[in-house]
Specification:
Blueprint: H1 2-11, H2 13-16, H3 23-82, H4 84-105, H5 109-112, H6 116-122, H7 127-138, H8 143-169, H9 178-184
Helix pairs in contact: 3-4, 4-8, 7-8
Length: about 180
Amino acid sequence: MPDNFESFIQQHREEFEGPGPSPRVWDALEKELTHQRKGRVVQLLQKNWFKAAVILVLLVNAGALFYFTKHKQQQQQELAVIAPEMQEAKAYYTSRINEKLQLINAYPVNELGLDSTARKELELRNDTYKALEKELKNNPGNERIRAALVRYYQLKLDLLDKILEELQNKRATPGHTKKQYEAEI
């Protein structure tokens, strides 16, 4: 069979080497091919760059989220390792303070008479708390800082007790909802 093919090519060789399309046709074809390729390549690059940018943004967000959650867990574990007795005190005072805050938050906002700055100061973890906790981490053996942190908790509880006492003196009970209070007025 290969012999037949070779003999066929030999016999019709002149037909294979005949003149092709004119140079004008080749030029037009080349222009058309190069023009289509450039546009298509640019479109593909633009689409892929957008996808790559989206993937990059998602990866950066995931990395940041992972970093901050790990960092926060480490900070919480550090306090337990640095001062285990402070962890117990923190758990005790935190639960008591949260109970008092829930009782205070049960009152209508206008009955409390507190502005947003005062309400923020009532939160458990305000700037003072954060500063004391940071100092305790930097100086774990310092008894003055430990005492200051316990004193902070005690003062916070006293303040919340006084606010609750004042609210109770006004005869507004925590069981009142905002709607019930407004209905009474």
